[in-house]
Design goal:
alpha+beta; 8-stranded mixed beta sheet; two-stranded antiparallel ribbon; 5 helices
């Protein structure tokens, strides 16, 4: 299991975003390492966990629970076949393009050691947005991505460190529950009846998903 590339983006003007100032950092490309990764700070204030990577809409992106976004090269390959076009590493706006890692099948709270220092923890799947759809330029993209239910994973930084392309990924902790990224994604998008199951993930779950899950089991009065 390895990191194929570490990807970062610069602020770019785009008509397909409703971010303040009309800027987006979704157009990410591989960068040479080492790249420092650390906790960017709370949602609404902190951006990307990667040094030099732009997050332009802090209302919905970045912050501690979405510090790093990982997507499997295997999933990009599957989308290449479906879309009939090449997709470079970073094409989905991911910070880490991985090989051999079951990203969407990872458990919420699963911890990955990358390189010698960096320790990350899986928090949630990525919810597709208008900026993502505009960046890909594919008709009905939000619906298609949602139906595939392979969203890649957001991760928080437990221990900061520096990483580069080729670093090994080691799963050093797997929780005992069965709440995967895919399950969490389906619960908050197309299958709301699954929301109560997310509570088994405990504090590792992204706060917004946790709020939705608690609301789903709250008594109706």
């Amino acid at each position: 299991m390895t990191v194929l590339t570490v990807n970062a983006g610069r602020p770019t003007a785009a008509s397909h975003t409703n971010a303040p100032g009309g800027m987006t950092g979704i157009d990410k490309h591989p960068v040479e390492g080492p790249i420092r990764v650390c906790d960017p700070g709370p949602e609404g204030e902190g951006g990307s966990g990667l040094a030099g990577d732009a997050v332009c809409d802090l209302r919905h992106h970045g912050g501690s629970h979405q510090a790093v976004y990982a997507f499997a090269r295997e999933e990009l390959d599957a989308w290449e076949r479906e879309l009939g076009r090449p997709l470079a590493n970073g094409a989905f706006g991911e910070n880490l393009t991985t090989s051999g890692v079951t990203v969407s099948g990872a458990l919420i709270g699963e911890r990955w050691r990358i390189g010698g220092e960096l320790l990350l923890e899986v928090t949630s799947g990525r919810i597709p947005c208008r900026t993502f759809a505009g960046h890909l330029g594919e008709a009905g993209w939000i619906r298609r991505f949602t139906q595939a239910a392979a969203p890649g994973a957001y991760l928080r930084v437990i221990t900061p460190g520096s990483i580069r392309a080729g670093d090994p990924v080691e799963i050093v902790h797997r929780p005992e529950h069965e709440v995967t990224v895919e399950l969490q994604f389906r619960a908050v998008t197309t299958q709301r009846e699954l929301l109560p199951l997310l509570l088994a993930a405990g504090d590792a779950l992204h706060p917004e998903a946790s709020r939705r899950a608690r609301a789903a089991v709250a008594p109706q009065g």
